[in-house]
Amino acid sequence: MDVKAEVVEILNTIIGEDISDQMDDDFFESGLLDSMATVELLLDLETKFDIQAPVSEFDRNDWNTPNKVIAKVESLMG
Amino acid sequence: MLNLQPYADPKYFIILLLALLPLAIGLYFGKRFAWYEVLVSVVFIFLMFDGHKYHEGFALIGYMIWQWLLVWAYTIYRKKANNSWVFYGTTVLAIVPLALVKIAPAAHWTHVTTLLGFMGISYLTFRSVAMIMETRDGTIKEFNPWLFLRFMLFMPTISSGPIDRYCRFVKDINSVPAREKYIDMLSKAVHFFFLGFLYKFVLSYIFGTLLLPRVEHMAMLSAHANGGWSWWLIGVMYAYGLDLFFDFAGYSLFAVATGYVMGIEVPMNFNLPFLSKNLKEFWNRWHMTLSFWFRDFVFMRLVFMMMKNKWFKSRVTTSNVAYIANMLIMGFWHGLTWYYIAYGLFHGVGLVVNDAWLRYKKKHHVPHNKFTEAFAIVLTFHVVMLSFLLFSGFLDTLWFHQHH
């Protein structure tokens, strides 16, 4: 399973635009992702990759760019 | 007997900085004197709750034992099992003392207030409830009684926040900032102290002490003749709203600055809230540690639960329900009065409207330039000010409790 492609696709669907050219941009700062969208992201990642990503684990400094989300998912899949 | 209320007068600052001096010297040379820090905290907390406030001191001790037992027992339980009802039960038990203290004035239970109430109970409850939730999620795995006490009773923030998070706090308290970083923190602390003096002792004094009583008096007089309405209410709105901001932001700056001197990066509470272009942005800039607490421990969890169990088909309905519930709970937390609850509802509905507007803007072409931005800032400011007038309780006095 290509984690990177899958995560990008999930993010694209939630945000509603293609983010593959802004893999290191902070999506909280740019306002692309709000708390609502964040929960959708966590739920989608949970279903797609069968990982446990509870709300408390979600630290806005560790999850704020597409690349960091990919890294997190990979580490949670361990 | 000497009683020192936090950041109340120049004497407090002098005593505080003298007491923190050895700690600062230690940090400068790369040492954190944990025992000395605890000693200073204990002495200052004692001075807050001694003298005529002794019953608050006993309430604090009882409260701490209660929370200590709950968090400890839940951590032990959580290692073995993870039943949702045990989690809900523990959370409710952690909130019970605060809930009783909040219900007491409305129900006229004066004994409950004397027995359980103390300054800062809300802020301690936010910390311990967050710990229980993070323990459930597995973010906190061990109960460390020593760190628990230091986190809960961190002196600079004990009475009114900012609300820190356990994991963030522990990282700071278990390390020493590098010398360059610490010097930078000290220079920020000096800046925050002086900005705080300007906010609290100059601007809040002007708006709250000099102006507010006068405009309130005028509003009372003219409303009496005009069936409850008076143009002076607009003056009350501005004076109260600006006093609220400068008083609380000033206090928060003191707490953050004191934390920095102690080598702890206490999170900021305000970020130029009156420059917000919409209500959502306002809540990311106003009383931030409280609004982020509600975002992470109420809003996101509610949304998570509603989405996972598919309560509503529509994403919009889900977020609207969560907004209203979130802000209503915040209203209730302020106290059981109609105006606090109305304030919560006002902001819940405000966020729903705000979100609808943002969705509309995404789909349709809406002109956007410097003037629309300036208009948005002015509009947001006034919506917020209006909500503060509601929050102030002045309308309650004016309409329902005016005695002649």
The major β-sheet of chain A equals: none
- Low-confidence region ranges of chain A: none
SSE pattern of chain B: HHHHHHHHHHHHHHHH
Specify the helix fraction band of chain A: 40-55%
The CATH topology name of chain A reads Non-ribosomal Peptide Synthetase Peptidyl Carrier Protein, Chain A
Main location (chain A): cytoplasm
Pathway (chain A): Cell wall biogenesis; lipoteichoic acid biosynthesis
GO molecular function, one term (chain A): ligase activity
Family (chain A): Belongs to the DltC family.
How would you sum up this structure, described in words?
The complex is a heterodimer of chains A (78) and B (404). In chain A, helix 1 (3-15) runs antiparallel to helix 2. Chain A has a single domain (3-77), classed as ACP-like (Non-ribosomal Peptide Synthetase Peptidyl Carrier Protein, Chain A). With 78 residues, chain A is mainly α. Chain A has helices at residues 3-15, 35-49, 66-77. Chain A has three helices and no strands. In chain B, helix 3 packs parallel to helix 6 (121-137) and helix 4 crosses helix 5. Chain B starts with 9 loop residues before the first helix and ends with a helix. The mean pLDDT of chain B is 95. Chains A and B meet through helix 2 of A and helix 6, helix 12 and helix 13 of B. Chain A: InterPro entries: ACP-like_sf (IPR036736), DltC (IPR003230), PP-bd_ACP (IPR009081). Chain A: It is found in: Cytoplasm. Chain A: It comes from Leuconostoc falkenbergense. Chain A: Residues 1-77 form the Carrier domain.
Summarize the structure.
The complex is a heterodimer of chains A (78) and B (404). Chain A is mainly alpha-helical and 78 residues long. Chain A has 3 helices and no strands.
